Protein: Kinesin motor domain-containing protein
Organism: Penstemon davidsonii
Amino acid sequence: MENFQFSPFDNNPEFQAPDLCVSSGESGEDLNQETQAFAMEEDETEQSLADSMICDDSGSILVQNGFTIPDSTDEIVLFVNSGAMTSMESDSGVSFTADKFFKGGDTFQTEEFITEGGDYSFIYQSARLGDFRYCIENIPPGNYLLDLHFVEIINTYGPKGMRVFNVYMQDEKILSDFDIFSIVGSNKPLQFVGARVSIKDDGILVLRFEGVHGSPLVSGICLRKANNKSVSKVNREYFVCTNCSNDIEYPSAQKKLLRMKLVAQYEKKIKDLKDTLQRKTDECYQSWISWTAANEQLAKVRMELDNKTYRTYSLDHALEMQAEKLRDISNKYEQCKKSWTIAINNLEQKVKVMKQEHSQLSRDAHECTDSIPDLNKMVFAVQALVEQCEDLKVKYNEEQIKRRKLYNQVQEAKGNIRVFCRCRPLSKPEVIAKCSLVVDFDAAKDGELGILNSGSTKKTFKFDRVYSPKDDQVDVFADAAPVVISVLDGYNVCIFAYGQTGTGKTFTMEGTEVNRGVNYRTLEELFRIANERSETYAYNISVSVLEVYNEQIRDLLATETSKKLEIKQASEGSHHIPGIVEAKVENTNEVWKVLQAGSSARAVGSNNVNEHSSRSH
Ligand code: ADP
Ligand code: MG
C-alpha cells in the first residue's frame, strides 16, 4: 500500500485540480467558508458539481481543508483515525482513536505532505481503502452530526473520476458518485461536514462505502453531538448563526437570482452537452460506417489471406513433391551421367581404334590402288580368259562325248557279256570233314580253272576272270566298277550271280555289314559319279524290285499283288515291264531301304528257312 499511485497520469502538469471552495447552508460549522462560497460566484459550477454529490439534505457541506480544532471539543463523541494503528490524545483534548469498528478493506499509510492539512494533518496520512463498512455500537441514543475526512493521496496530478464511490449512513445514501480528486485534487483534505444522524435505542451507527470506480477511501470519521437547535428542521430561508444560534434571514431575491443563474448555467451546459453529444453521435455514426466498411474489407482481406494461405500451403506441398522428384531425377541423371561417361569413354576408345584402323585401311587401299597398274587391262584380260574358258568348255564337252564313246567301245571290246568265276575257301564243316580242294588255280591269272578228278586227269574251264579264295570283295568289285560309268553314260547293265546253294552268291553280291559286296559298292559308286557330274547332268535314279516265282513276275514294291506283269521287249532290244513300281531314290541308304522292303515281300522268304541260299540273284 506504500506505492499508492496513479501512474498513468504521472507528471501531467496540464491537469490542474480545481481549487474549489464549497459551502452552503446553515449548519454554522464554518461560517467563514460559507461566506467565501457566496463570494466566489465564478466557481458556482464546481460548487454545484460538489453539491450534486451530497444526497443528505440536512445541511451537510463539503469543506476543502483539514480538520481544525473547534471552539469546544466537548461535543466530539468519537474521532476514528481510519488506517491508524494507534490511538492518540491531542493537546486540545481531542482523542483520535485507532482504526476500529470496520469490516473489510485495508489500511493505507503515507508520509506524503498534506497541503492545508489543518491542525492534525496526520489524520490524512492514514486511510482505510477498499470495499468496507463501519459499524459503531453502544452509542447513546440521540441526535448527532457526522463528519467524514477524505484525502486523495497521490504523487502527481490525475484525472477526474479515477476514484468514485457512494457512502451510506444507516442505509441512506449521503454521498453519491463522490469524487475527491475532482473537487480538491491530490494531497489536499476534503471534509464532508454535518450530516445529521439520529441514533436509535440499539445505539448502532452503520457507515457503508461502496465503489463505483476504483476503491472507496476514508481517512477519518468524527461523530459529534448535535444541539437541539441544530437538529430542528431548518428553514431554508434562514442561515443559522454558529455563534449565537439565531436564525438569520436569508434574502429570497438573492436566492432566486442564484437559482436562476444556476438553472441558466445548467441549461447552457445541457445544450453544450447536447451539441457535443450530437457531434459525437455523428462522429460515432461516421466512424461506425467506416468501421463497417473497414470490417467488410478486413473480412475480404481475411478471406483472401485464407485463400492465399491455402494456396501457399498447396504450393509448398507441390514444391516439396517437385523437389522430391527433382532429387530423384538428379540422382538418376548423375547415375546416367556416370554410365554415359563410361560408355562415351569406351566409344571414344573404339573410335580411336577405328580411326587408326581406318587410316591403316586407307593406307592399304592407297597401296592397293598404287599396286594395280591398269585395272582396265586386267578386266579385258579376265574377259578374254572367260571367253577362252567357254571355248574350252565346249571343246571339253565334245572331248567328253568322244571319251565316253571310246570308253564304252573299250567296255564292249572287253566283251558285252563277261563271266567271272569265284571260288570260296573251304568252310569249317568241310575242313572238319577233311575235304580237300579239287580246284587248281595255277592258271587263274589267265582266266583258267582246273578241276581235278579222282584220277590224274584235269578238266580246264575258261572265264573272263577267275577269283581264288584269296581274292576279297574289293578285288571282285574292281571288275564291276567300270560298268557303273557305262550305266551313267546311258547303257543297260545287268550284274547277276549264279551258282549252287552255299557257293557264295549272297556273300559276293551283298556281303556283310563290315565287308560289303558288289551290290552295295556298285550303288555307292553310282551315286558318287552322279554327284560328280551333277554340274553338267541331272540323273533320276529309281529302283524296282521283282521276283520270278512259279513262272510269274511279282512286283515286290507293289501294294496290289493281283496285277499281272509281263516282260516286254522294246524295239532297240531293251526289256521293260510296263506297270512295275519305280521307287525314286537319292542315295544308297534309300536304295537299301527299298531293297529291304522288297526282300520282305518275297513269296519264298516267308516259308523257306534257308531263303538266302535257295535262289539265284
Ligand atoms: P549261296 O548264296 O551261293 O547259297 P553263300 O553266299 O550263302 O552261298 O555262302 C555259303 C557259305 O560260304 C557262307 O557261310 C559264306 O559266308 C561262305 N563263303 C562264300 N564265299 C566265301 C568266300 N569267298 N570267302 C569266305 N567265305 C565264303
Ligand atoms: Mg545265297
